Amino acid sequence: IKMKIKGFEDYSIYEDGRVINKHGRIMKCQLNKDGYKRIALWKDSKPKTFFLHRLLAINFIPNPENKYSVDHENRDPLDNSLENLRWATREEQNANRGGIWEYPITKGSLSKNNKNNYRYRWHEDKIPMWKHFKTLELAQAFEIEHLKTYELQIK
To answer: Fewest CB atoms within 10 Å of the CB: 1, 8, 60, 106?
Structure first.
């Protein structure tokens, strides 16, 4: 599913976190120092930077209680799947601490860049890691092996 981004109608966002501009180009995200994806959208010749998980929640997740922040339920800042995001109060977020850094290796995130290459990102001992691939098949094979390692540590 694709939706126009509220307040930035020159951009669309997909449920998987891809953001497309009015020319059909995929916008690049940057990782901040804490490992969260950030993206800059332009309006009236001025950039505004957003957390990707917040854009996803604003556009896809109902917020009937008007909660302010968006929480990663598994605490992995790279896991921006809608199933992992929820609107939360500060108290709810604080109660959900621990998660991601309980284990040395986090789940990862697969993305495509503008040069038709693929990148897989994850964290090891709180350090952002990434690996580039020329084909989607190679990237997906790496992702499967990485997820096996992740699953082994949480058992």
So the answer is: 1
Helix (H, G, I), strand (E, B) or coil at 22: coil
The SS3 call for residue 23 is: coil
Q: Which long-range contacts (CB under 8 A, 24 or more apart) does 43-51 make?
A: 43/7, 43/8, 43/10, 48/8
Helices (H), 1-66: 52-60
- Burial zone of 125 (CB within 10 Å; 0-12 exposed, 13-18 middle, 19+ buried): exposed
C-alpha span between 152 and 135 (Å, rounded) = 26
Helix (H, G, I), strand (E, B) or coil at 134: coil
Q: Along the 155 residues of the chain, how does pLDDT read in single tens digits?
A: 899 998 999 999 999 999 999 999 999 998 887 788 999 999 999 999 999 999 999 999 999 999 989 999 888 888 999 999 999 987 787 777 654 455 567 778 787 776 778 888 877 776 677 888 888 889 889 888 888 887 777 66
Rounded to 5 degrees, what angle do the CA atoms 109, 110, 112 make? 140
